[in-house]
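dumping this here before i forget
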Amino acid sequence: MAASAVAGGMALAGVGLTAPAAHAAEGDISFSNVVLNNGKPIVVGISAEVEAPLTYTVKSSVSLDDWWVEAYRTNGSTRYLLAISTTQWSCRTSSAGGYTFRDCDETMTIDPDGMPGGNGNHLVNSDAAAWKTLGTAIKKSGSYDTDLLSATVRLQRASRIQNANASPEPVAKGKPVTVTGTVQRANWSRHRYDNYGDRLVKLQFKPAGSSSYSTVKTVTASSTGYLKTSVTASQDGTWRWRYSGNTTTGASNSSGDYVDGT
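structure:
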């Protein structure tokens, strides 16, 4: 079975599947209310598996043996699936007007090293894009229905900010604090993090005793991703960098660096 999900269980996705004909929903089966990762982009690094929720409704007037929804991209006649596996936690069933409705709650598992991409069995940088979806249902009669769906999910390369540092420590109140760091993002094609230059990054501050950060200024990283700026120390607290991301790259925060004023 060319599937990434099994009703009530788990199955591994195929590495690369020849795309069967997909078409508009038939009258006896349809998929709706498809939501991947709560409507947010899925951010993936270079090694760790990522889990993302998937919910949908399948409506049928015929008996079904199995059904699933999957996110995919195509390369020629080959369809690549996003999830290496999908765990189905529940499918709440109801009936109305001669149809059975199944409201399904699942978790997709995405592995940047264990799923197909354009250049081998791993993600490649061009996979940072909007992935399409389709729904498949296996009828008890043995035939199946595969429908193209309107829902999409955006896959993003993880970013990170390394070597964040605020100095000197301690610092006299009213004197400058210099904050540095380096912006990086996942290079799926080469399985590493590379410096990510020319990014707009926010410098944020959390006063001692507070639970929230506020933005002090916005800094443009150098062409090699290096960050450096100076601000006046007016009180004790923690400094950090925040990169807000873009369509291909996820947001990230640096670790915080506490500076004590004297």
